[in-house]
Design brief:
alpha+beta; 31% strand; rod-shaped
């Protein structure tokens, strides 16, 4: 537990509990909410690119304090879970599943006191039945019995990009080129997929390639450069209607989309 959290808890117990007993003040939901937020902060884990926050909270209350909420207990637990999610989002914390809050009566907790147990849990429905049984035991307080598992996600494969280009040569002649998935190299050299009939085009001038479902044009360090819609570029995503110019040669993207 961080030192600041320990100090806060010390003063809360020093002032809040005796005051509640003295004036018979009812425990307020905002007090529980603050304890949950404090538990989230004290138990969070920071990695190189994100901060993971716990998503399961068991709130231990004195039976009399819990009874004071009456039929509101279920609604209160849901609202506290919503508040925990809002708190995590506001602080840019990552939670693997929507937070859940359980309110339990615990005679070991003194009147007007609050004890929050926070932990991490996988998203519901991702565990096999045997692991789910262990998870249920952990919900009951046997957290050490919950196995540690690695979740595997399948990353969707981007669609194959496709385009139809209208090529206008310096002499005014036009031709159409179809780009389907693979690379299309452009230049004066005969080993290019599109051989340019233009002395101002470099031997290996540029390349059109598929990247994450899009068509990207990359200038390969040409002498006279490349322009898309009149703007000099070194790398750009192409879309329908774009005009790519190299020297006195122009390529117009007639169709741009995905296959399948």
């Amino acid at each position: 537990m961080p030192p600041l959290t320990a100090v806060e808890r010390f003063f809360e117990r020093l002032f809040e509990r005796p005051s509640a007993r003295l004036f018979r003040a009812r425990l307020q939901p905002i007090q529980i909410q603050h304890r949950i937020e404090r538990a989230m902060e004290s138990e969070r884990l920071t990695t190189s690119d994100r901060t993971l926050a716990p998503n399961r909270f068991v709130v231990h209350l004195h039976p009399a304090d819990l009874a004071d909420f009456g039929d509101m207990t279920g609604t209160l637990a849901a609202e506290l879970a919503d508040s925990a999610l809002s708190f995590a989002r506001a602080h840019h914390y990552t939670v693997v599943d929507r937070p859940r809050v359980d309110l339990v009566a615990d005679p070991a907790v003194q009147r007007a006191d609050i004890r929050v147990d926070a932990r991490f849990a996988d998203a519901l429905g991702t565990r096999p039945s045997a692991a789910a049984t262990a998870n249920d035991r952990a919900e009951a307080g046997d957290a050490d019995s919950a196995p540690s598992e690695t979740r595997v996600f399948e990353v969707p494969k981007p669609p194959t990009p496709r385009a139809i280009l209208q090529v206008r040569d310096p002499d005014g002649q036009t031709r159409r080129i179809v780009v389907e998935g693979g690379n299309l190299t452009i230049g004066r050299a005969t080993d290019n997929d599109l051989v340019a009939r233009d002395s101002r085009v470099s031997r290996h001038h540029g390349r059109i390639t598929g990247r994450r479902g899009t068509l990207v044009y990359v200038d390969l360090g040409s002498t006279n450069g490349s322009r898309v819609n009149g703007v000099p570029v070194t790398e750009v995503v192409l879309g329908a209607g774009d005009r790519l110019e190299m020297g006195d040669t122009a390529l117009v993207v007639e169709v741009a989309g995905a296959l399948g």
